[in-house]
């Protein structure tokens, strides 16, 4: 059973987050190991295993990037993050420009502008990813996921720089 079936959701990138959370809570109550406290050791292990699978499935579907990757896996495309590099010269140039920009950040105003630019670009990639997944443009979606992962790393780096600037 795939994660979408587990939560009785359509196999789609666009899901109802509230519905996912409600079904998770219901399943969590039903499958929780405490309900099997008086059961056999085998049944206790099974309950623990099912709860672990439930939690993994929930975390995968809850996060847009992991949900997109999972959807591609269901379609037979596995992302090979470190083994496969992005062949988009324009994006590679943008990465270099972002790196230079981060190295030069030294005041909060520049940091705020960088956060705003990053948020805008990330949002554009997220919309692009959603369209690609809906159109089943799987290879293009895989590249967009790689771009979004880079953007998330940049956000984390910006947060570290913010912490240093705020002292």
UniProtKB/TrEMBL annotation:
Domain of life of the source: Bacteria
InterPro entries the record matches: DnaJ_domain, HscB, HscB_C_sf, HscB_oligo_C, J_dom_sf
Pfam family name, one: HSCB_C
Coiled coil: 108-146
J domain segment(s): 2-74
Alphabetical keyword list: Chaperone, Coiled coil
Protein name, UniProt field: Co-chaperone protein HscB homolog
GO CC terms, sorted: iron-sulfur cluster transfer complex
Source organism (scientific name): Pseudidiomarina taiwanensis
Gene, per the UniProt record: hscB
């Amino acid at each position: 059973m795939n994660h979408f079936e587990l939560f009785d959701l359509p196999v789609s990138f666009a899901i109802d987050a509230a519905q996912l959370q409600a079904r998770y809570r219901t399943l969590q109550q039903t499958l929780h190991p405490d309900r099997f406290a008086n059961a056999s050791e085998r049944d206790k292990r099974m309950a623990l295993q099912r709860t672990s699978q439930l939690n993994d499935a929930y975390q995968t579907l809850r996060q847009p990037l992991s949900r997109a990757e999972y959807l591609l896996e269901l379609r037979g495309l596995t992302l090979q993050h470190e083994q496969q590099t992005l062949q988009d010269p324009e994006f590679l140039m943008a990465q270099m420009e972002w790196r230079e920009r981060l190295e030069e950040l030294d005041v909060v105003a520049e940091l705020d502008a960088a956060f705003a630019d990053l948020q805008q670009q990330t949002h554009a990639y997220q919309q692009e990813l959603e369209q690609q997944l809906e159109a089943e443009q799987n290879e293009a979606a895989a590249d967009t996921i790689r771009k979004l992962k880079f953007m998330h790393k940049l956000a984390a780096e910006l947060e570290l720089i913010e912490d240093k600037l705020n002292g």
